[in-house]
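hiii so my PI (J.) wants the whole complex modelled not just the main chain, which honestly fair. so below is everything: two entries, each one labled with what it is. i double checked the lines twice but i was tired so who knows lol
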Amino acid sequence: MDIFIDQFFNIEIMRKSFPLLLSGLWMTLKLCSAVILLGLIGGLFVALGNMSERRWLRWISIAYTDLFRALPPLVLLIFIYAGLPFAGINISPFAAVVIAFLLNNSSYYAEVYRAGLISVAKGQWEAAQSTGLTPAQTLIHVVLPQAVRNVLPDLLSNTVEVVKLTSLASVISLSELLYNAGMARSVTYNASPLVLAALFYLVLLWPLVRLVSHFQRRLAA
Amino acid sequence: MANRPMLEVVALEKRFGPNTILKKIDLKVAESELVFVIGPSGSGKSTMLRCCNRLEEPTSGDILVNGRNIMAGTRRDLDRMRLQIGMVFQGFHLYPHMSVLKNVTLAQRKALKRSKAEADARAMNMLEQVGMAHKADAYPGELSGGQQQRVAIARSLALDPKVMLFDEPTSALDPELVGSVLKVMKDLKSKGMTMVVVSHEMAFARETADRVVFMDGGVVVEEGTPDEIFGAPKAERTRAFLSRVSG
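here's the output for the full assembly
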């Protein structure tokens, strides 16, 4: 039992590795903000392309969502970070992670948006446009608010997945939360920093997961 | 001036694949005139109405509103022309995530670029007119169908349209709520609004319409005053339809 506590819940080691993990958390948060924000915007455009009346636009957006949902994000990441330099394209670790996960993540957001947009009755478009609103105004003020509300749990779920996904960035030595915890582990020869990192993720994500359940129940009611 | 056409439908044709829904329809609606369009379901009357603001895209033909062809021009021109053509739907289509007041101010603010104060004042004025001012802060989900439809009418009226199109405005309502909507339409008529109404409310047509148009199979079969159409229909198809709906 002492070994268990000493190896996983060593307060002294946790205290010492805390600053390193905090800086890792900061990097994770920066990654998340970039990927989530760009993903929410990009995903919307991909979804709109998917519903366009122009066939070529539909095809491009369908190909995009199919490709990047099927490709494992880790494969994408390593290809962008370690593969592209062979073609003379060098990308910083941070940018590589953002690009790789954005491609993946915006495809999933796009599918969620699409479900939301379809769920809004056609009459809403017609009513808004019959009052002289442009298609963009109709989308922004009338359709999108209803669409987002209808798929809020799914948008949030997807966001939780993105936060977890960023831990893969440790593979290319980006000093985010998991990578720094691994560093602390190998320096102290003790697993407590990993436990501490897990606690960080838990504190970050548990409220979000709760929120998803809350919205799901509210929508079901 | 009384005979100046406010809405003119010229050789309007609409095809869906191999089916021709509208076959070269012509219709003139004078300023302040109330034209009632009747006919069996599938006759094309709703499609004709929806072509009048291009919610349905005509295959060919022209639609003139106040002398201007809405088939010509850019998308922007169309958005602007639609401000002059109010439309009321069978299903109301209020925006469920906005209060009644916001429903009525949205297009005023975004399409007409009115100030908030001006749009609010105008909205309250219109809601007063349809007897819904006391529900300005309510949400559509809290209203009865008849109340929602009156708000929808106010939403259109707030944009100062030249013509109002009504697409079966009372068909989705419980019978006891129909009267409140018809009363609002009658008020509008007395204020000189130009109106085209697709509806099955024959008693209302008899009482308020200036002219009744009977459509069947994508053509205008017969038109005339309510007395002519309901009292002495000439065409066999009109007689058959009227005996079906009254019997």
